[in-house]
Amino acid sequence: MTLLERLNKDDRFAASIGARLIEIREGYSRAELTVEERHLNGAGVCQGGVMYTLADLCFAGVANCHGILSLGISNTITFIKSAQLGDHLVAECTEVVNHHKLPYCDIKVMNQNGEILATCTGLAYRLKKEMEFDALM
């Protein structure tokens, strides 16, 4: 099983809201989701937790791409613009520091027009446990 398949299958919460990884390369990943009625908050825009979950799934792709089980320990997100019903969201994560214990990444969440809706930083902790997969994709 590839890392992409494993994360899409094993991250049950992300899967339950329709988020899915579509690309993983060493130091880079991409995930997507289309905003549906179920994702809207009381103000009628996409709930921030939906964008965060998409960013976090993308972060997991990069944090684990080196084959060591890595879990997020500190993430910050800044919402710049609301996502609307029907928007196709894409998150892109890039590795900034591939530290042996504390990898650090930057994540952007954009809409179908390439507008940045949120930026996120992710710091993970690498456990002393292998993350087994056959290939990244």
Number of separate strands: 6
Class based on secondary structure composition and strand pairing: alpha+beta
The rounded distance between the terminal residues' Cα atoms is 9 Å
How helix-rich are the residues, as a percent range?
A: 10-25%
Largest sheet: 6 strands, antiparallel
> Strand percentage, roughly?
35-45%
Mean of residue pLDDT? 97
Contiguous low-pLDDT stretches (5 residues minimum) are none
Characterize the overall form: globular
In angstroms, what is the radius of gyration?
14 Å
What is the spatial order of strands in the main beta sheet? 1-2-4-5-6-3
Count helical runs.
3
- What is the chain-wise order of helices and strands? HHEEHEEEE
Description:
It is built from 3 helices and 6 strands; from the N terminus they run H-H-E-E-H-E-E-E-E. It has a 6-stranded antiparallel β-sheet with strand order 1-2-4-5-6-3. Strand 4 and strand 5 (104-110) form a beta hairpin. The radius of gyration is 14 Å and the shape is globular. With 137 residues, it is an alpha+beta fold. The termini are close together. The chain has helices at residues 3-10, 12-16, 48-63, and strands at 20-25, 28-34, 68-79, 88-97, 104-110, 116-130. The longest helix is centred in the middle third of the chain and has 16 residues, at 48-63.
